[in-house]
Amino acid sequence: MSAAAGASTPIQMRSKLSKKFLLGAFAVVAVATLATPVAADFGCPLAQTCNKYCLSINLKGGYCGECISMVGSYLVRSDLCNCVFVSKNWLHIFTPHLWKLVHIHCRRGSSRHTFFERPTQDQLDNWFQKLKRSIEAGGLDRNGQYVQTFDCEHYEAVELLAARGMTCTGIRVLNLGSYPDPDLLSLKSRKFAYVRSLDLSPLICILNRNSHLRHLRVAGRMLDEKNYDFTQLLEAIPRSIVCLSLREWDPIKGKRGYDRDLLAKEYESKNDSTSYLEEQEGQGETRFPRLKKVEFCGYAFDLNKRTMEYILKNSPNLEILSLGDIYQPIPLKPISRILVRYCPRTMHLYVLNWTDCLDAELADLLDSGKAGWRTLDLPTTWSMRDEDEFGPLSTAAILKHSPTLENLRLDDSRKFSRAAADELSRMAPNIQRIYVRPGEPVAVAFVVWSFCLEQL
């Protein structure tokens, strides 16, 4: 962080702070701004200048230490790492800022680096081992109360957080996974019923500790609804949750004989035994009253239909729904029925691989938006067939929501005609972005844009 950046950063002070504290705060900022670095050992201008001048301003009195801590809340992680080596006092001041975010990549494919800068799997494993040694040495015991974001997809991290994170009660963002997954690597010669279930008690323990959790993301085998403790896992999700993401759970990786009619009958038929979904409906109480965004990505809907129905039926204030399955088409009929009855406020919809459905099925899904769609993002991955194409019923459903529509993407929509595009341009006053790839060119005076609901 440069000195100029430090000068432009606003520091909000509480009104109850004394004049001595305010003078100390301005002294730290002034020194960091005007003074020149004297040592090149740490590379952080703030660390260099404050190490020379600010530590003499009654650091033991507490005021200057709290002031430096407030300045540290605006530093990037690399500068924080430099600051902890200045002195023992600074080590105690800046360590809580480092523990606010625990973020370790565990898989090479999940790295945000470019292709050439992407670290190897051995490097990622070494990073996790360093985190593991730090936790086992008591890092979470001493600093767990500062952790706000815990992001690690290694299943061993779940066990460590449950066993050593007794003080981690203020987590707001939790991202956990089941990596590595040795049982699924050799699944070609195995059946789904023989996949070993993971122990969910550590995750249940973590959720019970963090009653104010807002963002939860779970991936892998922990989402197996055949697990004996899976019902307890759903019940342990706190009511404060705002964003829920369930990802990467398709144990047979699309190797199934897909029959659309058979799947529809399976969804319409009642279960032989009373499920926890039916028990929850009888209580007349919603489990997730604050839930705004739900994401199912790489999720086998035919194998996890109870989970999907349970979450959607208990989310009356849901606004953003993201559905994606790269292995098989997503059944739209049950989703349409649930949205109409239980999710009247849904305004943003993303569906990946919605093909292999009739025009009427897609039209029913589009009509299920009672609050009026603002975003409709419908990309495809399967080749379209004549009976599956975006037809006149779906076109009419789109036009019906044109007064509220802001973002629209339709991949391979060969039947979305020029006349429909012109009518949409006249009827949609709030349209901002549109991407349509029809069979013939359509002149649309809108911005071409590929959506990403992660930005919402």
Instruction: Summarize the helix and strand pattern as letters.
Output: HHHHHHEHHEHEHHEHEHHEHEHEHEHEHE
What is the helix content?
25-40%
How many strands in all?
A: 11
Q: Which structural category do the helix and sheet elements fall into?
A: alpha/beta
Determine the strand fraction and express it as a percent band.
5-15%
Largest sheet: 11 strands, parallel
Q: What is the strand arrangement across the widest sheet? A: 1-2-3-4-5-6-7-8-9-10-11
Number of helices: 19
Poorly predicted residue ranges: 1-43, 52-63, 110-115, 182-195, 266-277, 382-388, 439-455
Round the mean pLDDT to the nearest integer and report it. 72
Measure the end-to-end span. 29 Å
Rg estimate, integer Å? 26 Å
Can you give a write-up of this model?
It contains 19 helices and eleven strands. An eleven-stranded parallel β-sheet has the order 1-2-3-4-5-6-7-8-9-10-11. Helices cover 38% and strands 13% of the residues. Helix 2 crosses helix 4. The two termini are 29 Å apart. Among the domains are: 3-95, no CATH class; 99-184 and 195-241, no CATH class. The protein has helices spanning 3-8, 19-34, 45-52, 63-72, 77-83, 88-98, 121-136, 139-143, 155-164, 182-185, 201-209, 230-236, 260-268, 276-283, 305-313, 333-342, 359-367, 392-400, 418-427; strands spanning 101-104, 149-154, 173-179, 215-219, 243-249, 293-299, 320-324, 348-352, 375-378, 407-410, 433-436. It is an alpha/beta fold and 456 residues long. It comes from Linnemannia elongata AG-77. This is F-box domain-containing protein. InterPro entries: LRR_dom_sf (IPR032675).
